[in-house]
Design a protein that fits this description.
- The structure holds 2 protein chains of 2 kinds.
- By secondary structure, chain A is α/β, with parallel strands linked by helices.
- Chain A is 59% helix and 14% strand.
- In chain A, the strands form 4 sheets. In chain A, strands 2, 5, 6, 7, 8 and 14 form a 6-stranded mixed β-sheet that branches. In chain A, strands 11-10-12-9-13 form a 5-stranded mixed β-sheet, with helices on both faces. A two-stranded antiparallel sheet of chain A has the order 1-15.
- By secondary structure, chain B is of the alpha/beta class.
- Chain B contains 9 helices and 10 strands.
- A 6-stranded mixed β-sheet of chain B has the order 6-7-8-3-9-10, sandwiched between helices. Chain B has a 4-stranded antiparallel β-sheet with strand order 2-1-4-5, covered by helices on one side.
- Classes of the chains: A alpha/beta, B alpha/beta.
Chain lengths: 481, 243
């Protein structure tokens, strides 16, 4: 966890961040009044939480939380995000609680307060269904094991690795981990028993190779010392739903014999069944792109002009901005905006807002460079001629240099737009359900990663091709003028 | 009356001093032509006169305005000093008329109609009226330079600086441009001209300045400089250019 340290780096970053923050609506930390909470869950962790074909979140955790909230009379917003992101969001008080098949471990109890356990989910080893060689931990000697980052399964695999010669491959979500085994890259996966059993029931070509480990209680978590009343309500509600039979109903629905297997309908069925979610994912991708690009065009032009002026101080500001923002990978910047900034400033920023800020900060740096380059490409005699007429610097730039620079810049701006559109996929790491994340979610319930990534890739390709053609026409019209 | 006064002008690019303490006075209505070998600093000298180049020492006074005084609004002074460049520097995204009307519209708040009338009058005076609404790229070099002169006249300056105005032109175009300049001189414009056109210097200049290695070597009327140069360096240079 990043402490409140004021190194020059953070200062500079927060300076530019606060500039961007001022452009966007940001709510301050909301007190959890009126029994309303924000609760994070994993994006894809069937049968605990996953989206059904209608795009609604279902699963053991979801229904249990629903039943308990109803019993105790509190309301909540559900925020699906990657498990490790959810844990960080809880740590930084971005959310009030996490229900995500979270194992109660001594390490986690140091930071979080847990409810009474509601299920025991010991890890098992799963292998490809055709694999008959691995039937015990011993058989894993010399093999490769896939795990999901930050899970007890990953921890268990680490313990096994101390005893046996095991190589570990880490993944951000379950679907990728399964695919890695199905595709033959890893020999086995370590996963909580209920999750594994459900996935196999749904048609995943894997086989459970070992008995589930005992003593892995799963609970609902709040940040240490925060929201004690929420925890109390959860415990009281859990007792009630166990007594009135709701609990058993839920468990049977997902783990019992009645758990129905989803029919696999092939490529076009996959596309038509998920068309609406894919389009809404695409919509979010486009909104992220357009909003960020519009902000970056304005901010990038200003910073680009800073670096083109003869003023040394403005040059320096532009230089620092571009150096920092180009020097930080987009994914790190996204985590910084979503996890670090809220802790430093005690703000609550929605993932979508954080995503737009992240992308805008990043794109601004590149556009600033293009503006600087465009201005530099205009013959310096143009500015001299304008100045020799008595026109002030600003007017000369506006009327003479910039109109010429913009024509030079258009091709690289179109290119930048395409890059920004593709970069939105990186924002899926902070839980924004844009096109890529939509694909992941669909894979999590359909287990059809092969076809899904073709569909997602094709959608990106089509939309980028269409937009590029459109921009080229605009470019031609502008240059003909 | 003195129009332009340069005192002890020094200019360096890095460690290289290119102007080594120049003094020059130009009277109202006078045409001064600066000649000298390449690299002698004559273009830099001219560009310092309206501070397109920053200077490292000395003073430049136009009318009663000291350009080197930091409090002086340089833009106000530049309005009264027209400049014509070797590479024309017309604005390619604007039509010929728009090139000329840009400054009067911005600085004098002239209406579209007034500024267009002004532009057409100026274009007529340089023989370019029929090209008013084309873009500069469709013009020949000589035509471009005549438009550039019209543009430089748009703010009604009373001092004109010419930086090798015919050096980038095909030989058959040179005459047209020189003719326009000659007419300007006859109408009483104060002019400082850097050029390699010795014919123009002989015919039009009131005084000729010979520069070499960042210094003014010799100043005098054309008859003196061309026929009886006092300095050995002036003699050598003229021997080479007047074959």
């Amino acid at each position: 966890m990043i402490r409140k340290q004021t190194s020059a780096f953070l200062l500079a970053l927060t300076f530019v961040a606060s500039f961007a923050l001022s452009l966007l609506p940001v709510s301050s930390v909301s007190a959890t009044e009126d029994n309303h909470y924000t609760i994070a869950t994993d994006v894809t962790f069937a049968p605990f939480e996953f989206q059904n074909a209608d795009g609604e979140y279902v699963g053991i955790d979801i229904e249990l939380l629903e039943a308990i909230a109803e019993d105790q009379g509190f309301t909540y917003d559900l925020q699906p995000m990657n498990f490790s992101a959810a844990v960080q969001a809880l740590e930084s008080n971005q959310v009030d609680g996490v229900i995500a098949a979270m194992s109660i471990t001594p390490e986690r109890e140091e930071n979080f307060d847990f409810s009474e356990p509601y299920i025991d989910a010991g890890p098992v080893i799963a292998v490809h269904e055709d694999n008959e060689d691995i039937n015990s931990y011993e058989d894993l000697n010399g093999k490769t094991v896939a795990v999901k980052v930050g899970t007890t399964g990953a921890q268990f695999a680490n313990e096994l690795a101390e005893e046996y010669d095991i190589q570990i491959n880490q993944f951000e979500d379950s679907a990728n981990m399964y695919e890695d085994v199905a595709a033959g890259h890893s020999d086995a996966a370590v996963e909580d028993y209920p999750v594994m059993a459900y996935a196999i029931q749904q048609g995943l070509a894997l086989r459970v190779a070992t008995e589930p480990e005992q003593g892995y209680p799963v609970g609902f978590a709040v940040n240490g010392g925060q929201n004690p009343e929420l925890l109390e309500m959860f415990n009281a509600g859990l007792t009630n739903v166990v007594e009135n039979g709701t609990y058993e109903e839920i468990m049977n629905r997902y783990l019992g014999e009645e758990a129905a297997s989803a029919p696999s309908g092939g490529f076009f069925a996959l596309l038509s069944q998920n068309f609406d979610s894919l389009m809404s994912g695409l919509g979010r991708t486009l909104v992220l792109t357009l909003a960020s690009f519009a902000i970056s065009l304005i901010a990038g032009t200003i910073i680009g002009l800073f670096s083109a002026t003869p003023n040394k101080a403005l040059n320096l500001i532009a230089n620092i901005y571009v150096t920092i923002l180009r020097g930080i990978p987009l994914i790190v910047l996204a985590f910084f905006m979503y996890f670090t900034v809220p802790q430093l400033f005690r703000l609550q920023i929605s993932a979508f807002t954080a995503g737009i800020i992240t992308l805008s900060l990043n794109t601004t740096a590149y556009i600033a460079e293009q503006v600087r380059g465009g201005i530099a490409a205009v013959d310096k005699g143009q500015l001299e001629a304008a100045r020799s007429l008595g026109l002030p610097y600003g007017t000369s730039m506006q009327k003479v240099v910039l109109p010429q620079a913009i024509k030079i810049m258009i091709p690289s701006l179109i290119n930048q737009f395409v890059i920004t559109l593709k970069d939105t996929s990186i924002l899926s790491v902070i839980g924004i359900v844009e096109l890529t994340q939509t694909g992941r979610i669909i894979i999590a319930r359909s287990y059809e990663s092969g076809a899904m990534w073709i569909i997602v890739g094709a959608i990106y390709l089509i939309i980028i091709t269409v937009l590029t053609k459109l921009s080229n026409q605009i470019e031609r019209r502008l240059i003909n003028d | 009356m003195t129009k332009l006064k340069v005192e002890g002008l020094r200019k360096s690019f890095g460690d290289n001093e290119v102007l080594k303490g120049l003094n020059l006075e130009v009277n109202e209505g006078e045409v001064v032509v600066i000649i000298g070998p390449s690299g002698s600093g004559k273009s830099t000298f001219l560009r310092c006169m309206n501070l397109l180049e920053s200077i490292n020492g000395g003073r430049i006074i136009i009318d009663d305005y000291d350009l080197t005084d930091p409090a002086q609004d340089i833009n106000k002074v530049r309005e009264n000093v027209g400049m014509v460049f070797q590479q024309f520097n017309l604005f390619p995204h604007l039509t010929v008329v728009e090139n000329i009307t840009l400054a009067p519209k911005q600085l004098r708040s002239l209406s579209d109609k007034e500024s267009r009338e002004l532009a057409l009058r100026l274009l007529d005076s340089v023989g370019m009226a029929e090209k008013a609404d084309v873009y500069p790229n469709s013009l020949s070099g000589g035509q471009k330079q005549r438009v550039a002169i019209a543009r430089a006249l748009a703010m009604e300056p009373d001092l004109m600086l010419f930086d090798e105005p015919t050096s980038a032109l095909d030989p058959e175009m040179v005459g047209d441009v020189l003719e326009v300049m000659q007419r300007l001189a006859k109408d009483g414009m104060t002019m400082v001209v850097v050029t390699h056109e010795m014919g123009f210097a002989k015919e039009v200049a009131d005084r000729v300045v010979f520069m070499d290695e960042g210094q003014i070597v010799e100043i005098g009327p054309p008859s003196q400089i061309f026929d009886q140069p006092e300095n050995e360096r002036t003699k050598n240079f003229l021997d080479k250019v007047l074959v």
